[in-house]
Amino acid sequence: MSLLTVGTVAFDQIETPFGKEDKIVGGAATYISLAASYFAEKINLVSVVGDDFPVAELDYLKSKGIDLEGLQIKNGERSFFWAGRYHENMNQRDTLDTQLNVLADFDPVLPENYKDSDFVMLGNLTPSVQMRVIEQMNPRPKFVAMDTMNFWMDTALDSLLEVLKKIDALLINDDEARQLSGEYSLVKAAAKILKMGPKYLVIKKGEHGALLFYDDTIFFAPALPLAEVFDPTGAGDTFAGGFVGYLAPSGDLSFENMKRAVIFGSAMASFCVEKFGIRRLKEITQSDIKNRVSKFVQLVNFDAMV
Amino acid sequence: MSLLTVGTVAFDQIETPFGKEDKIVGGAATYISLAASYFAEKINLVSVVGDDFPVAELDYLKSKGIDLEGLQIKNGERSFFWAGRYHENMNQRDTLDTQLNVLADFDPVLPENYKDSDFVMLGNLTPSVQMRVIEQMNPRPKFVAMDTMNFWMDTALDSLLEVLKKIDALLINDDEARQLSGEYSLVKAAAKILKMGPKYLVIKKGEHGALLFYDDTIFFAPALPLAEVFDPTGAGDTFAGGFVGYLAPSGDLSFENMKRAVIFGSAMASFCVEKFGIRRLKEITQSDIKNRVSKFVQLVNFDAMV
Is B227 on the interface with A (CB under 8 A)? Predict the structure, then answer.
């Protein structure tokens, strides 16, 4: 089934304890679609870049089966740019610079043949932009997942809450779940958030794994313990891309398949952090993914004998 | 097989966002032996209290099959006392008061019939006291596990490192593993610590679960997501008691059984935090434990189909 991805395609400047990259390709939609491309066959991308964006990078995305008809290229404008520095523990980062550029007045116009996409992954963006995408879909997609962040809870909570009513799955991190719900306990937070609209909630906890909530059921996917984390940028988007990308081909929305999707999302994220930017995501093979998922099985597998 | 537990038996004053208890029974050996009593039949306890310690509490421990011949009762002296206050997130706490009292000159003299205990769990204590216990054992126990804390790394690192050479398993939290190894990555930290002596390393991450390291193998046990955590005091000791208590009856030290022991330790810890002090540990039944372990199975169980 077809998958529509909406989000930023951008430049990042990243500094971690392991090094610095001045201007590399990033953006939520880049990570999402690239991760999804290992599973889904037809990926439609909606985003915007300036004419400073390298053609070679766009050609690379196309070569991965990502349709760029929905990517607007604004002549004479510059692409979205983000600069950040990670602390020693890699869990915290400081934003050094954010230049909206083309994103400032982004209107996500969907090409006609995108409107009946079966699966939608809304990357972190202004809630009103996310809503604009949902409104253009016809018929209503089989599955709509979205990401968001604290910033929109602070500045656009009402419109965020409207979007939440329209979606099937929300993917956010633990801090965001706490802020959105006003509950510290993630179990209580999930119960409240599931009443806001989404049927499924994934709470990402970075190096501490991810929780999938559905009704009264909880599934926990660990993060793979890694000796080195070079760059956490894009890990959450890569998780989302692996998650929704895994679901799209079969369209199987059973809880059993959702659990697998969370594991595949975690596996993809575990690759993402091994090198700067999307570099590692460009290298991996289906066999790498299969081996990585096997590691997740080994990591948590036990025979309780009770 | 018999299990020897060494650690504090004490009074705690605990303040959490949910309430305050002025003087309740606590101490590492209390939590360890109580948790272990659900699995192990013969538990030998070595500790020290003052004559202010309630006979009823000692009788209760005896009723759970815990042998108190090794518990020294010092006339005219007072029991160890700790007072602490937890922050809103329950992951941080401030120590408000520590009164060593009887612990100041504690000499852990083992009764003759304790010296051939098969399993030993050394609760967090001065490393030299832990060493004194090991030295009295004859023959060398089948399995020696220990807990320790940052304080001893700061103040008695050399003698701590000597104890590490004598043990089979070290159970510490993530901060402690990082301090002991000087490595932020827990994978790297574990590799270094396993070279210091222990064959097995359990890194406890509180609400984020626990990792078991052995050779190049890692097993991850999640923590059960809980709606309410009333009091985290003793959770780590309860984990240790469940872990070593589960191992003791069979004496099976295979990695498969170690994994189960980590899950049972996690299950016991998940009960501990549900009420103040040891209250919840006093209530639970074998059936509760079985049901709780089943929840851990459900929480992480998935069919990867790869």
Answer: yes
User: How many whole angstroms separate alpha carbon B149 and alpha carbon B173?
Assistant: 8
pTM, two decimals, is 0.95
Q: Which residues pair with B67 in a beta bridge?
A: B44
The CA distance from B252 to B254, in Å, is 6
CB contact at 8 A, B131 and B108: no
Residue A97 is inside which H or E element, if any?
strand A93-99
Only one residue has tokens 């999930």, namely A190
* Whether the Cβ atoms of residue A122 and residue A54 lie closer than 8 Å to each other: no
CA pair distance B81, B86, nearest whole angstrom: 17
Nearest to B297 by CA among A213, A243, A300: A300
Whether residue B219 lies within 8 A of chain A, CB to CB, comes out as yes
Does an H or E element contain B296, and which? Answer: helix B286-300
Q: Where do the DSSP E strands lie in B178-276? A: 200-204, 210-214, 217-221
Tens of pLDDT along A91-107? 789 999 999 999 999 99
Choose among A187, A259, A302: nearest Cβ to B225. Answer: A187
DSSP for residue A276: S
How large a percentage of chain B has pLDDT more than 70? 100
Closest Cα in chain B to A230: B185
Beta bridge partners of B3: B43, B119
On whether the CB atoms of residues A154 and A161 are closer than 8 A, the answer is no
Cis peptide before A139 (omega within 30 of 0): yes
Reported ipTM? 0.93
Of B185, B209, B293, the CB nearest to A228: B185
CB A9 within 8 A of CB A49: yes
